[in-house]
Write a structure and sequence with these properties.
The structure holds two protein chains of two kinds. By secondary structure, chain A is mostly beta strands. Chain A contains no helices and eleven strands. By secondary structure, chain B is mainly β. In chain B, the strands form two sheets. In chain B, strands 2, 4, 5, 9, 10 and 11 form a six-stranded mixed sheet that branches. The chains are: A mainly beta, B mainly beta.
Chain lengths: 115, 112
């Protein structure tokens, strides 16, 4: 079974530029999550999708971050414009349990450096 | 708001020794996870603990859950170098969205 796929793995941009990350969850997983992990900290939830609907985006900085999950499969996370403090690893995870949060399966992450 | 605290944040131990990592959480929850993360890698699920008194063991690692005390422990027995990694506990919130909230992690270094 293929795992959660993310791209790009690494991205370096200057502040005020934009960036987009892509995630393909495990086939059949209804729930998809984007987490931000700053160096030395635990992952922090940015947004949670159930199929193509948003379940929780309370911690997403909506003035600069946006995410979508068209057709309930792939998802993209965009940052525009980026700030220095956005430097982090962006982790995508998926879960098979509809309506409940069961075990999460994480991708390798996309490491963003903002200069 | 659910808060998850781990201690210690850094742990350096010699091979063959035993140690325990603690995870406290602030509100009622019915599910707790332990994850391992190697440098530059993603998170690997180690244990899922579902009920009070639950104990799970895999190799040199054993996890337990006390929901009344809102405490989970990850015990390391006779540590080996391969266990060097960062260990996170994560707790499900009781709200409708059932968010998974992570602790800050315990960076474990096992010295020869």
């Amino acid at each position: 079974e293929a795992g959660v796929a993310q791209s790009p793995r690494y991205k370096i941009i200057e502040k005020r530029q934009s960036v987009a990350f892509w995630c393909n969850p495990i086939s059949g997983h209804a729930t998809l999550y984007w987490y931000q992990q700053i160096l030395g900290q635990g992952p922090k939830l940015l947004i949670q999708f159930q199929n193509n609907g948003v379940v929780d985006d309370s911690q997403l900085p909506k003035d600069r971050f946006s995410a979508e999950r068209l057709k309930g499969v792939d998802s993209t996370l965009k940052i525009q414009p980026a700030k220095l403090e956005d430097s982090a690893v962006y982790l995508c995870a998926s879960s098979p349990n509809r309506g409940r949060t069961g075990e999460l399966f994480f991708g390798e992450g996309s490491r963003l450096t903002v200069l | 708001e659910l808060k998850v605290e781990q201690n210690p944040l850094f742990l350096s131990m010699q091979e063959g020794k035993n140690y325990t990592i603690y995870c406290n959480y602030s509100t009622t929850s019915d599910r707790l996870y332990w994850y391992r993360q190697d440098p530059g890698k993603s998170l690997e699920s180690l244990f899922v603990l579902l009920s009070n008194g639950a104990v799970k063991q895999e190799g040199r690692l054993m996890a337990s859950l006390d929901t009344k005390a809102r405490l989970s422990t990850l015990h390391i027995t006779a540590a080996v170098h391969d266990l060097s990694a960062t260990y996170f506990c994560a707790v499900i919130s009781s709200g409708s969205a059932r968010q998974l909230t992570f602790g800050s992690g315990t960076q474990l270094t096992v010295l020869p």
